[in-house]
Specification:
With 626 residues, the chain is an alpha/beta fold. It has 4 domains: 232 residues, 3-Layer(aba) Sandwich (Rossmann fold), CATH 3.40.50; 60 residues; 211 residues, 3-Layer(aba) Sandwich (Rossmann fold); 91 residues. It is 47% helix and 18% strand. The chain is built from 20 helices and 18 strands. The strands form 4 sheets. Strands 5-6-7-3-8-9 form a 6-stranded mixed β-sheet, sandwiched between helices. β6, α7 and β7 form a beta-alpha-beta unit. The longest helix is centred in the last third of the chain and has 43 residues.
């Protein structure tokens, strides 16, 4: 369908890629991976005819229809429904011809236009546009509103809906999830899985890529390399290449040691059935990530906090909101080591909860208490606007840490990707990703004991995201995270909270469970070609699945009960060991017996956890087969 032969492209004096030869086949879904500025977006401009190759050639079918998201908003005065419908240019063309034919009473042209509009299913165009808008978070009540009344992020959602509205053979999406919340991402993912054309996708969201693409084009050192499989498969292949090339084995071993410690810590704590499998499986993947990160330009690191109060913060019967309450009767105690992920629909109150905790918004009712020894590191996108536009990254860092020498500041900034001229560039000229990295650098340098992070990965490339992720694994303080990055949520958080429908509740499932729950609750927003089954057939299939899973599920429940019983015994033993009297000379035999029991219980728990994980994996395999 698309071919590159010995292609080379330059922008000014910078070579983006050369000697590129590849073929994209019809209906493929391919991810484009590489650092910012490597040429991914320029390749899209090539395909759209806005750039020309410096060497080689590119071939496209002559009648190919290409749809891509625009960066600019072309009509601020249109209603959002009309704006999305305008994305289908051929539909609008024939609608205009039909209207003109009716005015001129041209029966032949009316007949021709009617046939064309029938072919394009114009009769359900409004419905398709409304489904796109609903899936991307717009309500029915907002349909008459004009484009200009929405913020820049929501206008980008409209441009995405407009691109999806256009029938296409080739769909080019450049960071489509940047301005979406998690629920909208889940809907878009479902829609794209059912897209019948060819998809080229630029994204820094590894879970989004994993679920969609079957090949990866890697932009690296002015070359384009093709990898078969999704992003995780690409990463494994890249890691193996690096493993064979790398001599820095100690650096790799150190990273893996930190990750293994974190995995073991989680295994020792986790007893919730639905989270164990997803969490441990995802964290095990990070062994591969640790290897690929040895080539990353970033070295994010949190310093050990000076204090760790317990509790750190407490919400008692708190209501959050601006003029009106978004959620009521919120009760929460934050303790050292807590890792909380906050989920919920857009506008439900996730960011409002975080702003209330940091004191940017007062609680409407109830008590929000923060320990005087709690040092909060707070990140949200609006803080980027607070950077002095006339100061460089070096100036900002030096002003924040006047005790540091010039070389210390430069070394520190180098770990966040600011080297050479980049460190001296005024912040108004920094990209969104660079400003995010600078803010994260300032937060990490302050040694907070409580991190409150609101979409910290927006604008970050994959290497920067993974560097942040690895830094969070060894961070000893508490974390509250709002993010649409499912990989970050899965690997960082040990407990999930849902803010929705005016209240905050605990969620015991995994991110996969949350995704299924959201898609099942919004059947009208699924992809246009998804086929619905009858309720009778669904009941039959559910019964068959339950029957096939029953023996393994029974074993799983038995092991889980044994784990709970063993954990209870272990807790009792450790309570005895916490009693100072057991360490007196006369209690020597009791201490020895307790230590032996403790070791025995820990070994038993380890065996049970391994059996538990094996049963969970067996259930997963059966579910996939069914």
């Amino acid at each position: 369908m698309i071919g590159f032969q010995s292609a080379a492209l330059r922008r000014g004096n910078k070579l983006l890629f050369q000697d590129a030869s590849l073929t994209v086949h019809q209906s493929e879904k391919i991810g484009l991976i590489g650092a910012n500025g490597c040429g991914k977006s320029s390749l899209f401009r090539l395909l759209l005819g806005n750039l020309s190759l410096d060497e080689g050639q590119i071939t496209l079918p002559p009648s190919i229809s290409i749809s891509a998201t625009q960066q600019d908003v072309v009509d601020l005065n249109a209603t959002i429904l009309d704006y999305v419908l305008d994305g289908d240019k051929e539909l609008r063309h024939w609608q205009n011809i039909y209207q003109q034919a009716v005015k001129s009473d041209d029966t032949n042209l009316i007949s021709k236009a009617t046939d064309e509009l029938d072919r394009q299913q114009a009769w359900n165009a409004d419905t398709r546009a409304k489904q796109l808008l609903a899936g991307l978070g717009f309500s029915e009540q907002q349909l008459p509103e004009t484009v200009g009344t929405f913020s820049g992020g929501w206008q980008m959602r409209l441009n995405l809906a407009r691109a999806l509205m256009q029938p296409s053979d080739l769909l080019l999406l450049d960071e489509p999830t940047n301005h979406l919340d998690l629920d909208a991402i889940l809907w878009l993912e479902s829609w794209l899985k059912n897209y019948s054309g060819t998809l080229l996708l630029i994204s820094h969201d590894r879970v989004f890529l994993d679920s969609l693409v079957s090949r990866v084009i890697h932009f690296n050192q002015q070359r384009l390399s093709i990898y078969t499989g999704n992003y995780s498969a690409f990463e494994k292949q890249l890691a193996e290449t690096i493993r064979l090339q790398q001599a820095q084995q100690q650096r790799i071993a150190d990273k893996q040691k930190h990750l293994e410690q974190f995995i073991n810590r989680f295994r020792a704590k986790a007893t919730k059935a639905k989270q164990v499998q997803s969490r441990v499986k995802t964290l095990n993947k990070m062994q591969t990530i640790a290897i690929t990160q040895t080539q990353s330009p970033y070295r994010f690191k949190f310093h050990e906090p000076d204090a760790m109060p317990n509790p750190m913060a407490r919400l008692d019967a708190v209501s959050i909101g601006y003029n009106e309450s978004l959620a009521d009767n919120i009760n929460l105690i934050l303790q050292p080591g807590d890792r909380l992920g906050v989920l919920g629909h857009n506008g439900a109150g996730k960011s409002t909860l975080l702003k209330t905790l940091v004191g940017a918004l007062p609680a409407l009712t109830g008590d929000c208490w923060i320990s005087k020894n709690t040092d909060i590191g707070y990140f949200d996108q609006h803080q980027m606007d607070s950077l002095d536009p006339n100061l460089s990254a070096f100036d900002i860092a030096q002003n924040s840490f006047p005790e540091a020498t010039t070389q210390m500041v430069l070394d520190f900034l180098g770990g966040f990707g600011f080297t050479g001229e980049d460190a001296q560039k005024e912040s108004r000229h920094l990209s969104g990703g660079e400003r995010s990295r600078l803010l994260l650098a300032m937060i990490m340098r302050e040694k907070p004991n409580l991190l409150i992070l609101d979409e910290p990965t927006n604008h970050l490339d994959i290497q920067a995201r993974e560097s942040l992720n690895l830094a969070l694994q060894t961070y000893s303080g508490a974390i509250i995270l709002v993010s649409h990055d499912r990989h970050l949520l899965e690997t960082t958080c040990e407990q999930f909270l849902i803010v929705d429908n005016g209240r905050m509740t605990s969620f015991d499932g995994s991110m996969d469970d949350y995704a299924k729950m959201q898609l099942q609750s919004e059947p009208s927003q699924t992809a246009p070609k998804a086929k619905s089954e009858t309720k009778k057939l669904q009941r039959q299939q559910a019964a068959q699945k339950r029957q096939a899973l029953a023996p393994v599920t029974k074993k799983l429940n038995l092991v889980e009960r044994k784990m709970q019983s063993t954990q209870k015994q272990l807790d009792e033993i450790e309570q005895q060991l916490a009693d100072p009297s057991i360490y007196q000379a006369e209690a020597k035999q009791d201490l020895k017996a307790c230590l032996l029991q403790q070791a025995d219980m820990k070994n038993t728990m380890a065996d049970l956890e391994m059996e538990y994980l094996e049963l969970l994996e067996q259930i997963e395999r059966l579910e996939q087969e069914l």
